[in-house]
Design goal:
The chain is built from five helices and 36 strands. It is mainly β and 653 residues long. The protein has three domains: 84 residues, no CATH class; 271 residues, Beta Barrel (Porin), CATH 2.40.160; 226 residues, Porin (Beta Barrel).
């Protein structure tokens, strides 16, 4: 039988994916700026909740003409606002839409004016507008499981975006950081019965196994506009129809680096799907069962070689909202007609069950993190039907960041009770990362932080954006010169940081998780990438002292087999930031490396002016690649360099 995969790869670079992520950041910034007047209020659904908020509310002064005056010198009390018919707290009757009963509350005219209380900036009273709080799309039943459409839809005016990656291991052959499928999507509720969207997937790697004895380079891109319409819904049953038309570009075949010029295919094709999702809901809609029959239309051959053809698929899944912030999803797709997998033995086609299972955790009502296992090839409607190449028995770990926003809607900014207060000057200083360690704090919503600098002959930059409370996105780049086979190589990538505990909001310490991925863009065969996972924690025993604990692991990869370019490095960073006076800070950091490499250290001085939101560092360190490797790689010669950083913070008052 002819081999299915016989083409040289199309170079869809990772830089294109990062530019798509940058577009998502800019779109989110514009949307958030338009809705900034309604993002800082909290959901309060009962009189007891209102009373609790009044008890937690501790302003140093209240700009409200309707307030109860008390002499604090004699009573020790505070001035609390008194709601009346024109402003203050108003309970509204519950409103009913066709998907969820939502308690609503009007919250007006209250703000804290104490600049020394730590936290996220509040708006002035003049900026606070009446708003009706509603559930975000991430708090409602899911419109899609990881690889399965459901009959649920976004409501009119709601948007949901996602960006993520599916990480397969290197398996039998290959170097580098593994095999990554990058994906993204945006969906919009046009009406309560109509949803439009677009999804994309990109893959660019050597496969982890040979096919018919050949080592293959496989690269593809898929862009998929899609539509979903809901025909019917009652309290327990929903029925919808979904369809996509997708542009696929495949180039794949024996690697010319090893085998020279071989016959290849250069295949561009229009494919599509039709699906009929049916969803059954329990009484409270926390548990849903989904059945989704569908058809995917692929060509039967490409360049006279057999291809998938038409696939008749039966999908099923379950979704369970276990807690207000945690949901569990699982789904399967079974080809009952046609084939969806490729054999490593001879390139022939066969049937394979495609599955996924995992969880969604809401960092705040508008931001959710999906973590799951899957063997699917992609994340568009058609590529979700296909098993990863070859054999379909490789299991990946996937992570996807979801962000929901809505025109004319007001979402609660967090799950915390009470009012968030302004950042102190010291809080603002600690929004900045250390020299080689990451701060656990995240930027407030709609703020930017620009960092640029260098160490020895390496120069880099980092652009960070506060997407929402406890959520930060980053884009970074660096010219490398002190890593073997990386001379004059530019590394470019992106990162996301999610905060789970916040000391300034009353938690014992601040704790976050940060994931980053970068690729070298030099075009050198030895070029590779770097993937890091960190769990930064910050504890402040006094306002002047901040202590850092930063467990981290880095995966360094290359297309070559050089051991120094293919290794895993793990360490635990320890650090201190001490403010001497007026924004002048001393920084000391050390990272003992647990995997045998040389430990890292850095020490320096920082000045940051919170009135101007400008700062600068001068430091010494034995690390390299500080903007991309995040303090896990030391100089191969153990030498110390002198470096500098410049910081510019936008949007924090």
């Amino acid at each position: 039988m002819n081999r299915l995969w016989d083409s040289r790869g199309l170079n869809f670079s990772y830089a294109s994916f990062c530019l798509s992520a940058a577009g998502l950041v800019l779109l989110s910034a514009v949307t958030n700026a338009a809705e900034a007047q309604t993002q800082e209020t909290q959901v309060i659904t009962t009189p007891e909740s209102i009373q609790a908020n009044q008890q937690n509310f501790q302003p140093s002064q209240v700009n409200n003409s309707n307030q109860l005056s008390s002499d604090s010198s004699s009573s020790g009390g505070l001035n609390f606002p008194v709601p009346d018919s024109s402003s203050g707290l108003k309970l509204q009757p519950p409103a009913q839409d066709d998907r969820q009963t939502i308690d609503r509350l009007e919250f007006r005219g209250y703000t804290s004016q104490n600049p020394e209380l730590p936290g996220v900036p509040d708006r002035s009273e003049a900026d606070v507008k009446a708003s009706t709080l509603v559930l975000t799309p991430l708090q409602k039943p899911p419109t899609r499981l990881f690889n399965l459409e459901t009959a649920n839809l976004l409501s009119s005016g709601e948007f949901n975006t996602s960006i993520g990656a599916i990480f397969f291991l290197k398996d039998q052959i290959g170097q580098g950081t593994g095999l990554q499928v990058f994906n993204g999507s945006i969906d919009a509720g046009i009406s309560d019965n109509l949803q439009l969207g677009i999804a994309a997937s990109f893959f660019d790697d050597d496969l982890g196994r040979t096919i018919n004895g050949f080592r293959y380079k496989f690269r593809y891109a898929a862009i998929a506009p899609n539509i979903k319409y809901q025909f019917f819904q009652n309290e327990s049953l929903s029925l919808s129809a979904a369809s996509s038309i997708e542009f696929l570009d495949f180039k794949n075949g024996p690697d010319p680096f090893y085998y020279g010029t071989q016959p290849t295919i250069d295949a561009k094709s229009i494919v599509g799907t039709i699906q009929l999702p049916l969803t059954y809901s329990t009484t409270n809609r926390e548990l849903q069962l989904h059945l989704t029959p569908g058809i995917a239309f692929f060509p039967t051959s490409l360049s006279n070689l057999p291809f998938y053809g038409t696939i008749f698929n039966l999908g099923a899944g379950v979704s369970w909202q276990a807690m207000s912030r945690l949901s569990l999803f699982a789904d399967v797709n079974l080809p009952v007609g046609g084939t969806n997998a490729v054999s490593s033995k001879d390139g022939s086609l066969f049937k394979k069950l495609v599955f996924s299972a995992g969880l969604r955790y809401l960092v705040n009502p508008a931001v959710g993190l999906d973590v799951y296992a899957t063997n699917a090839l992609g994340a568009t409607p058609a590529t979700r039907f296909l098993a990863f190449l070859p054999d379909g028995d490789q299991v990946a770990i996937a992570a996807t960041l979801n962000y929901a926003f809505g025109k004319g809607s007001s979402y609660a900014s967090s799950f915390r009770d009470g009012t968030r207060v302004q950042l102190s000057k010291r809080d603002t200083q600690l929004l900045l990362d250390g020299i080689t360690l990451t701060t656990a704090d995240t930027l407030p919503p709609n703020t930017f932080l620009v960092r640029a600098g260098g160490l020895k002959s390496e120069l880099g930059f980092n652009l960070a954006y506060g997407l929402a409370n406890d959520t930060q996105l980053e884009i970074f780049g660096e010219r490398l010169s002190n890593i073997p086979n990386r001379s004059n190589t530019f590394r470019f990538g992106g990162a996301a940081k999610l905060r789970f505990l916040d000391q300034v909001q009353g938690d014992f310490a601040s704790v976050s998780v940060r994931g980053a991925f970068a690729l070298d863009t030099s075009g050198d065969r030895g070029a590779g990438g770097f993937f890091t996972i960190e769990v930064p924690a910050t504890y402040r025993p006094t306002p002047e002292v901040a202590l850092f604990v930063n467990p981290k692991i880095g995966f360094l990869g290359s297309a070559t087999s050089l051991p120094i370019l293919n290794r895993t490095i793990a360490g635990i960073g320890l650090g201190i930031n001490y403010e001497l006076f007026g924004g002048l800070q001393l920084i000391g950091e050390v990272t003992p490396v647990l995997t045998g490499e040389r430990s890292l250290w850095s020490a320096g001085i920082r000045y940051f002016n919170p009135d101007l939101n400008l700062g600068a560092d001068l430091y010494g360190s034995n690390s390299v690649g500080n903007y991309t490797a995040r303090g896990v790689v030391s100089d191969t010669n153990g030498s110390t360099g002198i470096g500098f950083n410049l910081h510019w913070l936008f949007g924090v008052k």
